[in-house]
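dude i think i finally got it to work??
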Amino acid sequence: MAEYPTAEIHRIPLEPLVLDILALGLQLGDVILPDPPKPASFAGAIAALRCHGAVTGEDTQLRLTPLGRTLARLPVDIALGKTLVLGAALGVVDAVLP
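look at this
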């Protein structure tokens, strides 16, 4: 067993972190993390955010879309947040909620 537990940043999804960094007007390269995740982890998070339509732009100049700005303010998983936002926008939120 390791002497210290694995850092939380290595155990959680990075999509919310990427959204928070971009919502602050920063880029991923602007943030210094003491024990950063592997670049492939950030690449996967960025790909997922692009797939959901939350970010646009090149990896070095990411920008939040209007949906991304809204998702950055919600304390839920990205997919659930997108479902709630689009459900509300389309007036079918009752069908989305249990």
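The two ends are 41 Å apart (CA to CA).
im so relieved honestly
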